[in-house]
């Protein structure tokens, strides 16, 4: 095991890519989910059951 | 007299004082599981398994031509990541995404609370090679199966230490999170009320949700398909409404069966010569860093959002985005009540907590994408 402090800086791009990646995926999921719920909401289509 | 000779020739000469230390560690894990009720489903089998594998010439580990049961189980279910994936079916079947689906925007807090994973990745890379650093960082996912899958896929040699850290800190969430939350929030912020209004969620949404997550995540991070897919498969079994007996089986029989095998098999990686290293202490420390910065990430993100929101959120719910379900959600709710006994944060905090489960699996998939 070696102590390489500069690796923290070198690997910061993974932090940026990782957080951005999660954010993008979650935002897409939020958008699609809201759209699906809006389309399938009971009373608007008259054909879906709700829980 | 023969047995004394046997004891001396075979056992005493193969005994190492470090085995005794591992028995103590195993005993501590068993004590914590039983007496303190800390994640007993995993800590007890891990603790007992640690004792099993650290007996001289233990027959549970393969030695030469003699196959050991735990080694066979390891090859059958951990080395190929099968056991954690099967467990994920059970976990998916247990999760009710209803509170989250009634306010899907809360998922963003689950995303923010994965910050600790990537911060720990950078920190751990100062001491370990990048794949080991990534395997250690995934402790911050606060999710046993994800940690196992990632550590195994990246062929980390620290699986035993990573699992002990992950499950121990999951059990310690009630101790770790509150001081971090209090440090990062003001009394005024903790008093912010969030009235809950239940929005109806259609059955179609509940059925499509696991499919949407699987497809979206799988397209962006293909290496996450196994993790996300099995979790969402379990949830789909639950929500479809026509597989109730399968859902019950997944939640109880399957989950319990796999958990029994998983815990004791992980212990096969806790042999004294690999576990008792300075690296193990460092991994335990880094695991704590991951949990702390997960909590901080969620809370600080909520505070940041409040700069732009007219209707403020209580920043404590950001901390619930850590995937320790349902403990983290309950902790935030209790802290809210402690500040104001009319402030019921439970539905919001549980929704965020559940979103943390999704986000942590996505994080695991991204880590695999980066480093495989």
End-to-end C-alpha gap of chain B: 56 Å
Query: In total, how many beta strands of chain B?
Result: 0
Helical segment tally of chain A?
2
Question: What kind of oligomer do you see?
Answer: heterodimer
Low-confidence stretches of chain B: none
How far from one another are the termini of chain A? 54 Å
Give the gist of this structure.
Chain A has 51 residues and is mainly alpha-helical. Chain A has helices spanning 6-10, 12-40. Chain A contains two helices and no strands.
Give a description of the structure:
The complex is a heterodimer of chains A (51) and B (372). Chain A is mainly α and 51 residues long. Helices cover 67% and strands 0% of the residues of chain A. Chain A contains two helices and no strands. The radius of gyration of chain A is 21 Å and the shape is rod-shaped. With 372 residues, chain B is mostly helical. Chain B is built from 21 helices and no strands. In chain B, helix 5 packs antiparallel against helix 10. The mean pLDDT of chain B is 92. The chains are: A mainly alpha (51), B mainly alpha (372). Chains A and B meet through helix 1 and helix 2 of A and helix 7, helix 8, helix 14, helix 18 and helix 21 of B.
Topology:
The complex is a heterodimer of chains A (51) and B (372).
Chain A lengths: L5 H5 L1 H29 L11
Chain B lengths: L1 H10 L5 H19 L4 H14 L15 H10 L3 H13 L3 H4 L5 H6 L2 H10 L5 H8 L6 H10 L5 H13 L1 H12 L2 H4 L12 H18 L4 H15 L4 H23 L5 H4 L2 H29 L9 H4 L7 H13 L6 H26 L1
Helix pairs in contact in B: 2-3, 3-16, 4-16, 5-10, 5-15, 5-16, 8-9, 8-18, 9-10, 10-11, 10-21, 11-18, 12-18, 12-20, 14-15, 15-16, 20-21
Key descriptive features of the protein:
heterodimer; A: 51 residues; mainly alpha; 67% helix; rod-shaped; disordered C terminus; B: 372 residues; 21 helices; globular
């Amino acid at each position: 095991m070696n102590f390489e402090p500069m690796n923290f800086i070198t690997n910061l791009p993974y932090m940026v890519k990782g957080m951005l990646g999660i954010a993008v995926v979650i935002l897409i999921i939020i958008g699609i989910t809201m759209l699906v719920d809006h389309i399938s909401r009971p009373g608007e289509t008259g054909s879906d059951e709700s829980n | 007299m023969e047995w004394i000779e046997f004891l001396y020739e075979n056992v005493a000469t193969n005994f190492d004082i470090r085995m005794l230390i591992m028995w103590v560690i195993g005993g501590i894990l068993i004590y914590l599981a039983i007496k303190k009720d800390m994640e007993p489903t995993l800590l007890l089998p891990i603790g007992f398994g640690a004792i099993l594998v650290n007996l001289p010439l233990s027959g549970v580990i393969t030695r030469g031509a003699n196959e050991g049961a735990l080694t066979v189980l390891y090859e059958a279910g951990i080395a190929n990541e099968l056991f954690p994936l099967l467990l994920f079916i059970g976990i998916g079947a247990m999760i009710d995404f209803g509170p989250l689906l009634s306010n899907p925007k809360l998922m963003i807090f689950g995303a923010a609370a994965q910050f600790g994973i990537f911060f720990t990745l950078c920190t751990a890379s100062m001491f370990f090679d990048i794949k080991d650093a990534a395997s250690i960082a995934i402790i911050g996912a606060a999710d046993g199966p994800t940690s196992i899958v990632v550590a195994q896929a990246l062929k980390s040699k620290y699986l035993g230490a990573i699992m002990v850290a992950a499950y121990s800190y999951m059990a310690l969430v009630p101790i770790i999170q509150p001081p971090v939350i209090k440090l990062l929030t003001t009394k005024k912020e903790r008093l912010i009320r969030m009235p809950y209004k239940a929005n109806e969620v259609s059955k179609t949404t509940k059925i499509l949700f696991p499919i949407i997550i699987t497809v979206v995540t799988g397209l962006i991070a293909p290496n996450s398909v196994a993790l996300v897919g099995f979790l969402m498969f379990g949830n789909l079994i639950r929500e479809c409404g026509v597989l109730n007996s399968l859902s019950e089986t997944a939640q109880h029989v399957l989950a319990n069966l796999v958990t029994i095998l998983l815990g004791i098999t992980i212990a096969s990686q806790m042999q004294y010569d690999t576990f008792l290293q300075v690296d193990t202490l460092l991994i335990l420390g880094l695991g704590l860093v991951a949990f702390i910065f997960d909590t901080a990430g969620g809370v600080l993100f909520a505070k940041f959002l409040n700069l732009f929101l007219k209707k403020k959120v209580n920043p404590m719910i950001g901390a619930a985005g850590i995937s320790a379900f349902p403990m983290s959600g309950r902790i935030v709710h209790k802290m809210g009540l402690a500040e104001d006994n009319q402030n019921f944060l439970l539905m919001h905090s549980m929704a965020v907590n559940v979103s943390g489960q999704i986000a942590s699996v996505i994080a695991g998939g991204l880590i695999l994408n980066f480093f495989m």
